[in-house]
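worker-3 :: picked Polyamine aminopropyltransferase
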Amino acid sequence: MIEPQVPAPPGSPPSWGRPGGAPGPAPGPVAPASAAGLPVRPGTGRFLVLAGVFVCAACGLVYELELVALASYLIGDSVTQASVVLSVMVFAMGIGSLAAKRLRRFAAAGFGAVEAVLALVGGSSAMALYAVFAWTGGWGGLWAEGPHVLLVAFSLTIGLLIGAEVPLLMELIQRIRRQDAGGAVADLFAADYVGALVGGLAFPFVLLPFLGQLTGALVTGTVNAVVGAALVLGLFRGDLTRRARWLLVTVNIVVLAVLAAATVLADDFERAARHAVYGQDVRVAVRTDVQEVVLAGGTDGRPLRLFLDGRLRVSGDDERRYHEALVFPAMTGPHARVLILGGGDGLAAREVLRHPDVRRVDVLELDPALVELARQDPGLSALNEHAYGDPRVHVTAADAFRRLRGEPAAPYDVVISDLPDPGLTASTKLYSQEFYALVRRVLAPQGRLVVHGGPLASHPVAFWTVDSTLRAAGLRTLPYRVDGRGPGSAPGTAGAPGNAAAPADWGFVLAARASPALRVDRAGPRPRTLTPAALAEAARSAGPTRVPGLPPSTLVHPRY
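worker-3 :: tokens ->
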């Protein structure tokens, strides 16, 4: 709480509160602007301080959202990353507010220093995190296991600096025109919260789509530095010594120069980091409305690799083994009408179309840009054998959950779930009991559903939760596992970046109203990589890994 005080005698330095919190004398008349050393009238000065609060709050929230977005993209599990970043920041803000009490006598200089450091740390945080991630291969596995110390360090530092702003700004606003503490807090927090609203909306709708994560953070830091320096040097320069003014000017020039240089080099840096993550043969890198899509290889005899949000989804070395294991067991029996959930790369559709008696294939893919890439890119379209050129294939760009909740379609003989792993927060609802109940509703009486449940060896609890959730939805299940062929070769990697090891196996669950059988239709086409002996072994090898007693995952209680 700010203690009242009388105006300082002419010629004496300003006093902004008594050390130790001792109460001061009763307030006297408000000093005019000239006596307070302000270049503007008190009303104008107050407005400028609140405007500075507004801008600084917007920048602070952008830093928070930037860390959450980058951590979710690089690590996965956005709920965990958001919880860690925001809780650490809020904790640090409290510590920062307490620490800033010691700076209240030097509020102007302290606020200027805090904003310069905050602009540098917050503006460069995204680039620093991405650089360490790209050039250290995920920090030796620690990144994949939990928030790395660097992410927590940035969250803690930014939170400390944001928290230090509040008591310093309270001193400055009271320095201009004294009012009761409750009114000052209300004005300050009103500007702060409105600024946070603007920053929160600007990040997803302006900064991220138009500038990207790296440049967006750098531009935010630049705005932060300019506003902080302008507020202190323009409005409170009389409270600084000549040496302090020059020091603050020099520090801000250095900060702005660093941020400007980083902004100019951001594109070159991103290309170099992308090559470090995905290899030197990156051909396509686009940010769609849904995700980042990267294609590497696929020409001149090099195997094609498809990455979605930094995770390997297709490897040309062994994708056929994965997709045959996904599709062929489900195609045993009637399969005139097939529904594919996900699978925008067209590779599951390719395997379905190898069965000549298929009459219709519906593909529900959230990202239409991925489908267009699979249709137009020479490497990917050659790999999927131009599946999207087949008149039997019909693509709908829609969220699978929302689509299946709509008007019930004609029943499907086969439903193939080729979705990202359940451990990714964005996919969790598509592995829920409610979603499988919707899928069951569109299954024909003898229909089969096959689900890619992620790597079984490394994530047995998640995989067997998929199995228990399918059974809770009223389906009989048959789990099976197909071995991969080593690091860097498996699609559907659960959270691994492009340069990390892929899982050693792929887990699938075949489900139906009646007990399904794991076999390949003898009257249909023969798989090229999947033998009857391999299928029998796939069913046997899954059983010993079972984790009993797992409850199903639901929308309100996700368990992945």
